[in-house]
Amino acid sequence: MSLMKLQQINDEIDELKYQGEQGVPILIEGRKDEEALRELGVNGPFIKVSGSSLNLSEIALRAAMSSRVIILTDFDRKGSELARRLYMDIQSLGSYPDLSIRRRLMGMTRRYIKDIQSLPSYIERLKFQVSPYLY
């Protein structure tokens, strides 16, 4: 079970890496989320929602300059509300906001983590469960 889940999460991380390499912006909540994703090999481009001098509409406008945007906010209530608002704003500006990676990651990790910054440690725990003697 853990091996399959680990592979599925790694597939989503690989997709994020690929999309980032293609220049697709990844909307995240803050600096710790960016650090966690970089630790996993995802190099952005990132657009941070928290700690920005821009309001949500301005962030959506900046993100919508790209034809496609990945929304990867946290899995808690605040993150879900942010994702919903950003999705509507970005879509109304004629860009395609993609929530699919967020939804899949959230579905796989919902009972264990609530934010993006916890992904690296969660993946390490899964690796240890799969093969405790290698880690």
Automatic annotation (TrEMBL):
Keyword Ribonucleoprotein part of the UniProt annotation: no
Superkingdom as given in the UniProt entry: Archaea
A molecular function GO annotation: metal ion binding
Domain Toprim intervals: 23-105
UniProt keywords, alphabetically: Magnesium, Metal-binding
SUPFAM superfamilies named in the record: Toprim domain (SSF110455)
Keyword match Metal-binding: yes
Entries under NCBIfam families matching the protein: PRK04017.1-4
Family per similarity comment: Belongs to the UPF0292 family.
Database matches in PANTHER family: UPF0292 PROTEIN MJ1624, UPF0292 PROTEIN TK1411
UniProt name for this protein: UPF0292 protein N5910_06485
Organism from which the protein derives: Methanothermobacter wolfeii
